[in-house]
Amino acid sequence: MPTFVAAEAHGDEAGALLAFLEAQRGGLRRAVLGLTDAQANERPSASELSLAGLVKHVAQTEQGWVERAQQLPHSIERTQDTWHLSFQLEDGETLAGMLTFWDGVARRTEEFLRSVPSLDDTFPLPEKPWFPPRARQSMRWLMLHLIEETARHAGHADILRESLDGKTAFALVDEERAARQG
């Protein structure tokens, strides 16, 4: 999704990084603009990805990383057998509900990251085969990782949305702008 982030308008480094993260979140949110739950759950490509599933995955992933940085237990545990559930809405879940959930996650992410004394502060990574033993990462790394993760999936969302109804990122930006002015 096309975005412009005036980083200097956000003060410090944390503010700039949070602004870039929010811009990527906006790209994914725009990709579901005006869709019904049925449309958002469609899988218009050879992959198993849906727009609703991407929203859920990004929201839960952000929440999990921030909980990890706070050294809290994960509120949503996933195993190899349940990983796929992070990419699909389950019974009772809606796109609107997932967007509301994500708004809360985003608010808590910003509150936490603005509360840390320094972006150089570190937290331990979990003991997983894909992380080095006893690895630690900084809060700056966390913010960059969240931007990376969200941007990757916003790109997926662009493709899925265009496959659904032909709307491109530029058309959706125009629709969003018109709705705000209107």
Topology readout:
Blueprint: H1 13-31, H2 37-41, H3 51-69, H4 95-115, E1 122-124, E2 136-138, H5 139-165, H6 169-181
Helix pairs in contact: 1-4, 1-5, 3-4, 3-5
Organism: Streptomyces sioyaensis
Protein name: DinB family protein
InterPro entries: DinB/YfiT-like (IPR034660), MST-like (IPR007061)
Mind explaining what this structure looks like?
- The chain is mainly alpha-helical.
- The protein has a single domain (7-181), classed as Four Helix Bundle (Hemerythrin (Met), subunit A) (Up-down Bundle).
- Helix content is 57%, strand content 3%.
- The protein has helices at 13-31, 37-41, 51-69, 95-115, 139-165, 169-181; strands at residues 122-124, 136-138.
- Helix 1 runs antiparallel to helix 4 (95-115) and helix 1 packs parallel to helix 5.
- The longest helix has 27 residues, at 139-165.
- The radius of gyration is 17 Å and the shape is globular.
Briefly summarize what is shown:
About 55% of the residues lie in helices and about 5% in strands. It is mainly alpha-helical and about 180 residues long. The longest helix is centred in the last third of the chain and has 27 residues, at about 140-165.
